Write a sequence for this structure.
């Protein structure tokens, strides 16, 4: 089973477990406060907002934030790629548009691997004989953009719109004294939809919310195609903390990589990354703090040169390149 | 190794040129989102009627401030009397917990958890405060509408009187029940058994039961 399917099945399984838990009153909570009975791991943003809004230290919220930070340090934005239901809900966009565009909304958006010309070319030419060496121009292009363009500027910026909205979420909680973002959080709305629909059928609890909540959720994922990479403050929080993530970072085995071993252009890893990370040339793409550990690059690599080791191998020069870009701001 | 050497002059360049703090476009989008959140926050002042809340949630302002709409309290309630508030209760209150006594009532989990309400125990943000008991933490106050009550048509109904476990109801000289306000803790037992809205006993124009728990602040 490939990870792409797995990354759809796992969020659906999480939704299923939470729905069954709700129906049987066992107390697993929703992703806003997942856990068992009295023990809950709060959404880190929710925990911060509720503490700011009430201006009190809430023990369970503090503990949740600490645990969430530890998990983000370990897995960066893996939550976005593996557990969050929003990218799965966003697949509903396929109903509205016939285009087979990438429905993985966690990142900046790319074509799926099997439709990506760059990947096709890389995979296709694998069987071909002597690969052509890179021209000087290509070498220059691969080693990073010499001139400035807006998309590069956006990729290279330390902060983006999400981070401003994260600040806005905390500010609005402080100004109005309640967690404002929770009202429109698509993760919360996903579970609210399930709960409201279950209540509708189980108790005949007819409410406008049964229509309003899913409508709001659909509007968010349909109209804000880049919700996760441009708007989501939870994603922003994870990318900020994720700057210090050093585990499970994609690493290239230079002895296998087509570029370093054979001197040919490939870029398959950069082409498939939903986050716009360029594993081979990190300076040309998004920061590794955006990595959702989706393994698309690992699977797309025609020579299987990319791995996600628990810790970076100190000896390999490739890891030096990997770390180079982000160690300074993280320190 | 060629790459490594190339990186050195790159790193030596001033940081600002290499990585802008934020692009103008991103800043505008972000400020737009922030403005939307600040606009949404204004629903706090749109005015909302107090509601009958689960144990420990009687301070409306504190509950609305702390509740992150995680839906855990309605899940853990063993009697299913906690429900998400409707849109009709205000955008601010939507999905916050309210009591729904249509089928059952609240005994502060005396039967199920020895008197520690499971909703309070599981609330991760302390929106439902600890220490609420049937004696000290009234959820609301039962209100009997004599126009709708079957007993006031001398039918002899006394379901609510029989259901009350906190001696908060009495019968008058005609065996008609009435509420003892200083004894009532709003547990909802009376409301949950009231038959005034059921088939065959509907009073003209009735939209709710004859005995209903009202919020204390109302």
């Amino acid at each position: 089973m490939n990870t792409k399917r797995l990354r759809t099945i796992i969020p659906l399984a999480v939704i299923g477990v939470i729905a069954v838990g709700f129906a049987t009153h066992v107390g697993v909570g929703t992703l806003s406060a997942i856990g068992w009975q009295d023990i809950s791991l709060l959404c880190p943003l929710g925990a911060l907002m509720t503490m700011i809004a009430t201006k009190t230290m809430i023990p369970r919220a503090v503990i949740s934030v600490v645990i969430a930070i530890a998990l983000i340090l370990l897995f960066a934005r893996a939550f976005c790629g593996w557990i969050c239901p929003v990218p799965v809900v966003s697949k509903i966009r396929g109903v509205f548009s016939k285009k087979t565009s990438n429905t993985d909304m966690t990142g900046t958006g790319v074509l799926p691997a099997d439709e990506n010309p760059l990947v096709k070319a890389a995979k296709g030419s694998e069987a071909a004989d002597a690969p052509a060496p890179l021209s000087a121009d290509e070498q220059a292009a691969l080693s990073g953009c010499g001139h400035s363009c807006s998309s590069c500027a956006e990729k290279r910026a330390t902060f983006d719109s999400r981070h401003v909205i994260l600040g806005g979420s905390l500010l609005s909680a402080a100004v109005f004294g309640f967690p404002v973002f929770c009202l429109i959080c698509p993760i919360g709305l996903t579970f609210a939809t399930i709960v409201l629909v279950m209540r509708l059928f189980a108790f005949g609890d007819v409410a406008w919310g049964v229509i309003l909540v899913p409508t709001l959720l659909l509007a968010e994922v349909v109209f804000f195609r880049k919700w996760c990479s441009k708007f989501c403050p939870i994603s922003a929080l994870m990318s900020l903390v994720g700057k210090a993530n050093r585990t499970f970072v994609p690493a290239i085995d230079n002895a296998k990589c087509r570029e370093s071993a054979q001197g040919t252009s490939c870029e398959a890893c950069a082409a498939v990354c939903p986050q716009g990370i360029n594993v081979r040339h990190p300076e040309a793409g998004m920061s590794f703090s955006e990595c959702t550990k989706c393994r698309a690059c690992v699977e797309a690599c025609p020579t299987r040169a990319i791995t996600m080791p628990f810790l970076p191998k100190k000896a390999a020069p490739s890891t030096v390149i990997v770390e180079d870009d982000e160690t300074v701001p993280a320190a | 190794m060629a790459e490594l050497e190339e990186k050195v002059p790159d790193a030596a360049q001033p940081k600002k040129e290499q990585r802008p703090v934020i692009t103008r476009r991103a800043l505008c989008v972000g400020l737009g989102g922030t403005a939307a959140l600040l606009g949404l926050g204004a629903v706090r002042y749109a005015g909302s009627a107090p509601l009958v809340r689960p144990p420990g949630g009687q301070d409306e302002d504190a509950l609305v401030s702390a509740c992150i709409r995680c839906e855990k309290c309605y899940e853990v309630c063993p009697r299913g009397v906690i429900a998400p508030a409707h849109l009709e209760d205000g955008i601010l209150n939507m999905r916050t917990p309210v009591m729904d006594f249509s089928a059952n009532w609240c005994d502060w989990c005396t039967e199920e958890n020895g008197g520690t309400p499971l909703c309070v125990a599981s609330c991760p943000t302390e929106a439902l405060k600890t220490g609420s008991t049937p004696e000290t933490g009234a959820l609301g106050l039962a209100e009997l509408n004599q126009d709708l009550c079957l007993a006031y048509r001398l039918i002899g109904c006394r379901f609510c009187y029989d259901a009350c476990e906190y001696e908060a109801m009495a019968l008058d000289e005609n065996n008609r029940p009435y509420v003892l306000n200083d004894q009532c803790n709003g547990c909802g037992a009376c409301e949950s058994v009231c038959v005034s809205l059921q088939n065959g006993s509907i009073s003209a124009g009735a939209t709710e039961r004859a005995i209903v728990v009202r919020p204390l602040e109302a």
User: Anything to note?
Assistant: Chain B has two domains: 50-137, 140-218.
